[in-house]
């Protein structure tokens, strides 16, 4: 029988390799989901830079603002472009105005509604321009991180691009039946926050302490079942279905679109009846379909057929 830590170590090693974590200087754990991963990344950043200022875009997942409040961090919200990506001119202006403070960046690798990806190369250029030596970059890669890394999609976001921590979800692309995720960080940063707990004979370095033993097993099973090439094939199929969905919607006059290399298809909100029946997420007059593994062309066709008879652009 494998030792108790076998499954989660294999899972974390898989993601450490995928995200090019620094050899001998990475650490992580299996979380309850992307929100906990984001909380941990921000917690680590706060411990490194107690007077740091968090910069995140207006398209960032709602949990981040909650995490910022829980950690009592100061923050600035950055504008986005039409596709949902961070406005780097606005970021540069805000960094310049507060350049005396350490900078904590929360970069989105797939925003909630449009799957926009913030560009770490642009962010790093801004930090260099204003000579910001004390900085930390956390990547919220819950949605798009796994398949973006599998296919080397642009813009790159892994540790080799400047990430200090990366959070992903296991119940999205990987497909765990229970909510879960993983957080990977640079080990030399994590070592600064651990606290010895005598009665368990180890260091406390996580948010939750006790953790689910089943979710690492689900993630391990998916990784072993599909393998790296099988997961890449799933990612390619998702992108192909997203392209098909855009084409089908446009064929009936709906101005659907997607960000580059995204599996999220965005379009004007259909009627309330359609949104309720198909459980379509909607915000500010826009709805989306995320072409995850398991979604079939037949369902897209059925959805499009119903849209033919229904109005769009209704909030």
Task: Give an overview in words.
The chain has 2 domains: 218 residues, Aspartate Aminotransferase, domain 2; 82 residues, Aspartate Aminotransferase, domain 1 (Alpha-Beta Complex). Helix content is 39%, strand content 18%. A 7-stranded mixed β-sheet has the order 1-7-6-5-4-2-3, sandwiched between helices. A 3-stranded antiparallel β-sheet has the order 10-12-11, with helices on one face. The protein has a two-stranded antiparallel ribbon with strand order 8-9.
Task: Give the SSE layout.
Layout: H1 6-18, E1 26-31, H2 34-48, E2 53-57, H3 62-70, E3 74-78, H4 88-97, E4 103-108, H5 120-129, E5 135-140, H6 145-150, E6 165-169, E7 181-186, H7 187-190, E8 195-197, E9 202-204, H8 214-251, E10 264-268, H9 272-278, E11 282-283, E12 286-290, H10 297-308
Parallel strand pairs: 2-3, 2-4, 4-5, 5-6
Antiparallel strand pairs: 1-7, 6-7, 8-9, 10-12, 11-12
Keyphrases for this structure?
18% strand; Aspartate Aminotransferase, domain 2; 315 residues; 2 domains
In which range does the helix fraction lie? 25-40%
User: Taking all residues together, what is the mean pLDDT?
Assistant: 93
- Overall morphology: globular
CATH topology of the largest domain: Aspartate Aminotransferase, domain 2
Total count of domains: 2
In brief, what are we looking at here?
By secondary structure, the chain is an alpha/beta fold. Helix content is 39%, strand content 18%.
């Amino acid at each position: 029988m494998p030792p108790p830590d076998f499954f989660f170590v294999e899972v974390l090693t898989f993601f450490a390799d995928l995200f090019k974590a620094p050899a001998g200087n990475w650490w992580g754990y299996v979380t309850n989901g992307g929100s906990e991963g984001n909380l941990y990344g921000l917690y680590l950043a706060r411990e490194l830079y107690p007077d740091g200022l968090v910069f995140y875009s207006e398209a960032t997942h709602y949990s981040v603002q909650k995490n910022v409040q829980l950690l009592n961090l100061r923050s600035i919200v950055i504008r986005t472009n039409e596709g949902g990506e961070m406005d780097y001119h606005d970021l540069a202006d805000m960094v310049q105005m507060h350049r005396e403070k350490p900078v904590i960046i929360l970069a989105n690798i797939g925003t909630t509604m449009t799957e926009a990806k913030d560009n770490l190369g642009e962010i790093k250029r801004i930090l260099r321009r204003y000579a910001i030596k004390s900085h930390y970059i956390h990547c919220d890669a819950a949605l798009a991180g796994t398949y973006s890394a599998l296919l080397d999609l642009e813009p790159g976001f892994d540790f080799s691009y400047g990430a200090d921590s990366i959070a992903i979800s296991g119940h999205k692309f990987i497909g765990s039946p229970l909510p879960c995720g993983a957080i990977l960080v640079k080990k030399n940063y994590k070592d600064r926050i651990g606290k010895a707990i005598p009665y368990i004979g180890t260091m406390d370095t996580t948010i939750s302490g006790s953790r689910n033993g089943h979710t690492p097993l689900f993630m391990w099973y998916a990784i072993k079942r599909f393998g790296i090439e099988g997961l890449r094939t799933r990612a390619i199929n998702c992108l192909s279905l997203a392209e098909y969905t855009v084409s089908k919607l446009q064929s009936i006059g709906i101005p659907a679109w997607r960000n580059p290399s995204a599996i999220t298809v965005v379009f004007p909100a259909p009627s309330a009846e359609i949104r309720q029946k198909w459980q379509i997420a909607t915000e500010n007059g826009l709805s989306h379909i995320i072409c995850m593994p398991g979604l079939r062309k037949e369902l897209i066709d059925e959805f499009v057929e119903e849209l033919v008879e229904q109005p769009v652009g209704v909030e």
